[in-house]
Amino acid sequence: MLSKLLIKNYALIDALDIEFDKKLNIITGETGAGKSIIMGALGLILGNRAESKHFFDESSKCVIEGHFEVTSYDLKELFNSLDLDYEDVTIIRRELHADGKSRAFVNDTPVTLQTLKLLGERLIDIHSQHASLQINTESFQLLVLDTVAQQQSLLNEYKENYQAYKKAIASLKALEEEISKSRAEYDFNQFIYNELEQANPQPDEQAALESEQNQLENAEEIKKYFHGAASLMQSDEQNVLDGLKSVLSFVQTGTKYLPSAESIQVRLHSTLIELKDIAAELEQVADGVSMDEERLTIVSDRLSLLYSLQKKHRVDSNEGLLNLLEDLSHKLQDSDSQEERIEVLKAEIDKLHASLAIQANKITENRISVKQHIEQEVQAVLAKVGMPNAQLQIELKKKAEFKSSGQDEVAFLFSANKGQTLQAIHKVASGGELSRVMLAIKSLVAKSSSLPTIIFDEIDTGISGEVALRVGEIMHQLSEHMQVISITHLPQIASQGNAHFKVYKEDGGEKTKSNIVLLKKEERIMEIAQMLSGANPEATAIKHAEEMLK
């Protein structure tokens, strides 16, 4: 429950420190006194987005802090899922700065607004006069059924399966579209693949063929120059080898007289042997080259094919052709395997469909099982608040298609008077009737949900007198199960509280500011008397107020 609310530097509030009772808390005050400001501040720590003009003093930051006693509400698992430190008294703090920056903390751990919302949904239900419009929505009507049926765990499992089911269907659709598109490309890819596979390009083939082509095309020139070199070395009248032999002969003779020159003689001898080998190899090279027109044609044709394929597919080497061949192979394999993937997806969808059908049936059964209980409980509460002939009928229709909430369509039908045809509730209920119906429903839901706190923000529109007293009694009974905070203009409701706070404005210095005070017994009598008869209540009004408080 909300045990304490601290507000600093917010709108017309300089600083407030409110400690709430664990049962029924009443907040009263004149219109414009600041009750809505307190609700706005509370909304900020529950994850609402900040608006402009929040500051009583723009030179300081705005701070709102709520202390929540959560020991009895099984929230440890939620805290773990949100990666938060659990504390029996959890402190939620929101800080706003004049430059527009905002920070939020749970037990001093920085959190996002989404985390605040998730946590806030488990701590407080705020019901305002405008919230009565929720009753017209299917999501709210299903929430009422599911909360009373206490099947949130089953619904969570169903929703997980439903998301997986929708995802699998989307994947199947995307795959089928991909197959349809790839089928148009399949024949073309297969043709190119066959062409390249038949050509069978090799990684180093092109360079070797180009070298061989160059040799075959210039065979005569090669023979000419290598034979000429060999002739100069050993066949001409003045060839290199004969000249070198003469040089060696001279050196050998001279060495007899100059032994120190023997190393030159050895080197010349080695050189002569090496040159003889070179001359022989020149002859072999020249003799080994032949003009093979047939081979040249084969090589040239092969290179022409490779050049043509490279140009056609916009690559500059055989490696590019090989990469294209590999890529096409993968595409063709993917096309072949897509049919298998479709079958796997269809089997998964069938399995999820069967599981959803079982879960949806159970969800429907649970809703049907509590339908009559809700109708009876709501009608019993409505009878207590001045609507003895009111009827609520819940219609459930099961549809073939799955939705995130199951397979049910729901409609809350209502009539306020005898003989009146049951119709959709928003069509036949007045504002006051709608408020009472929502009070009855919220009371029932609150008992089933174990929510720590519920706030009724001026839901007394359109009611007065005895009906208002009964509404107050309902709130008082509800506070036996949970903390209730009621902002009201009606003395009949105000008299039912365990704690009564008054919001008021005061003019001090240069600024008007809102304040709140917990009323003592005599102050409370006077406040209710003023609510009964005006600013200066007479003795009868004061006596009436005393009687109401008894």
Automatic annotation (TrEMBL):
GO terms for cellular component: bacterial nucleoid. The keyword Membrane does not apply. GO terms for biological process: DNA recombination; DNA repair; SOS response. Keywords: ATP-binding, Coiled coil, DNA damage, DNA repair, Nucleotide-binding. Residues 2-510 form the RecF/RecN/SMC N-terminal domain. GO terms for molecular function: ATP binding. The keyword Ribonucleoprotein does not apply. Residues 148-222 form a coiled coil. Belongs to the RecN family. PANTHER family: DNA REPAIR PROTEIN RECN. May be involved in recombinational repair of damaged DNA. This is DNA repair protein RecN.
